[in-house]
C-alpha cells in the first residue's frame, strides 16, 4: 500500500514574508489562487489566438510517455492536433521558449514578486531563458523529474487543468531516479516507492503553483491545457543551486559558473 498523501495548501492574499516563512525558505509546494486576476494572458491566450497569430511558428513536440519521440511541426498544426487527438500517449508542446521569437507575449503577464530571480542579473547572451509556454491535449504531461540545476519554479495555468504530485527531496531514495510512474506505480518493480510521502493537488485555470527546488514532481493535463512556467533562483534556494553548480562537471556550464561569480554577488556574499 502507498504512503498516505496530503493536499497542497491553497492560499490567497499571502504577503512575501509569509510566503518565505511558510513555503519559500523551508521548501513546500503551494497554490496561489489570486495572482493572475489582472493578466491579459488569462483572457487573450486562447488556442485560436496562438493559431491565428503564431500558427506558422515551428515548435518541437514530444510524446508524453516516450519523450525521445519528438518532431517539429507548426504551432497551428499542433493546435489542430490538440483539439482532435484521442491518443493515450499524445504529443506535448513543452519547453516552448517563446521569448526570443515572440517577445510581445512577455507583456501579457507579470511574474509575481515572490518569484523574483537573481538569474536576471546575468547578461543577455548567457542568461538561461528559463521561461516556457506549455500547450497540451488531455493526457499530456511530464514524467517524474526535478527542475534544472535545483532551481525552483512557478507555473500558471491559463486554461485547462493539471494534476500534480510532489515528493520532498528527502524521499529521493524511494523514487528510483524518477523512473517510477507516480500515477500508475509498478510496486513489484519499485517496491520502495510505497514509502514515499506525497503532496497532491489539482491546479485549475487562474491558479499558480510553486515547485521548490529539489522536489520531485509529476504532472498530467486532465484537459486541454495552456500554461506558462518560469524557473528561478533567489534567497530561497541559492545554496542548493550553488552546490549543484560546484559539483557539476558538465563543460557547458563552465561559462555560466564564471558569469554567476561575476554578476550575482549574492551567491557568494553570505555563503557557508
Ligand atoms: O506542466 C507540465 O507538464 C510540467 C511542468 C513542470 O514540471 C516543469 O515545467 O518543470
Ligand atoms: Fe518541473
Q: How would you sum up this structure, described in words?
A:
- It is a single chain.
- With 272 residues, this protein is an alpha+beta fold.
- The protein has a single domain (5-238), classed as Jelly Rolls (Sandwich).
- Helix content is 22%, strand content 28%.
- It has helices at 16-24, 40-44, 47-54, 75-84, 98-101, 238-247, 254-263, 266-269; strands at residues 5-7, 9-11, 30-32, 58-63, 70-74, 91-96, 131-136, 141-145, 152-159, 161-167, 198-204, 208-211, 216-221, 225-232.
- A nine-stranded mixed beta sheet has the order 2-3-12-9-14-7-6-4-5. A five-stranded mixed beta sheet has the order 1-11-10-13-8, with no helix packed on it.
- Helix 3 (47-54) runs antiparallel to helix 4.
- The mean pLDDT is 95.
- It binds 2-oxoglutaric acid (AKG) and fe (ii) ion.
Strand order of the largest sheet: 2-3-12-9-14-7-6-4-5
Q: Return the average pLDDT rounded to an integer.
A: 95
Mind describing the biggest β-sheet? 9 strands, mixed
Counted beta strands: 14
CATH top level is: Mainly Beta
Kindly, what is the distance between the CA atoms of the first and last residues, rounded to a whole number of angstroms?
Answer: 41 Å
- Second-tier CATH architecture: Sandwich
CATH fold annotation? Jelly Rolls
* Beta-strand percentage range: 25-35%
Radius of gyration: 19 Å
Number of domains: 1
Q: Helix and strand string, N-terminal first?
A: EEHEHHEEHEHEEEEEEEEHHH
Low-confidence stretches: none
Name the structural class. alpha+beta
| Alpha plus pi helix count | 8
Percentage of residues assigned to helices: 10-25%
Amino acid at each position: 500500500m502507498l504512503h498516505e498523501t496530503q493536499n497542497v495548501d491553497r492560499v490567497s492574499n499571502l504577503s512575501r514574508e509569509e510566503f518565505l516563512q511558510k513555503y519559500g525558505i523551508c521548501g513546500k509546494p503551494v497554490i496561489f489562487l489570486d495572482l493572475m486576476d489582472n493578466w491579459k494572458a488569462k483572457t487573450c491566450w486562447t488556442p485560436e489566438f496562438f493559431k491565428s497569430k503564431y500558427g506558422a511558428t515551428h515548435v518541437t513536440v514530444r510524446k508524453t510517455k516516450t519523450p525521445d519521440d519528438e518532431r517539429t511541426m507548426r504551432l497551428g498544426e499542433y493546435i489542430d492536433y490538440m483539439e482532435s487527438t484521442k491518443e493515450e500517449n499524445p504529443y506535448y508542446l513543452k519547453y516552448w521558449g517563446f521569448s526570443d521569437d515572440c517577445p510581445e507575449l512577455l507583456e501579457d503577464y507579470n511574474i509575481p514578486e515572490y518569484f523574483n530571480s537573481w538569474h536576471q542579473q546575468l547578461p543577455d547572451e548567457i542568461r538561461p531563458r528559463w521561461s516556457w509556454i506549455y500547450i497540451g491535449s488531455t493526457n499530456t504531461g511530464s514524467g517524474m523529474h526535478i527542475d534544472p540545476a535545483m532551481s525552483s519554479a512557478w507555473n500558471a495555468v491559463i486554461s485547462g487543468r493539471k494534476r500534480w504530485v510532489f515528493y520532498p527531496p528527502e524521499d529521493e531514495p524511494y523514487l528510483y531516479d524518477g523512473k517510477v510512474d507516480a500515477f500508475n506505480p509498478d510496486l513489484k518493480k519499485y517496491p520502495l516507492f510505497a514509502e514515499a510521502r506525497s503532496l497532491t493537488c489539482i491546479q485549475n485555470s487562474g491558479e499558480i503553483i510553486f515547485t521548490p527546488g529539489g522536489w520531485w514532481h509529476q504532472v498530467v493535463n486532465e484537459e486541454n491545457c495552456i500554461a506558462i512556467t518560469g524557473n528561478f533562483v533567489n534567497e530561497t534556494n541559492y545554496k542548493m543551486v550553488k552546490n549543484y553548480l560546484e559539483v557539476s562537471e558538465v563543460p557547458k556550464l563552465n561559462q555560466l559558473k564564471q558569469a554567476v561569480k561575476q554578476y550575482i554577488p549574492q551567491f557568494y556574499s553570505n555563503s557557508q
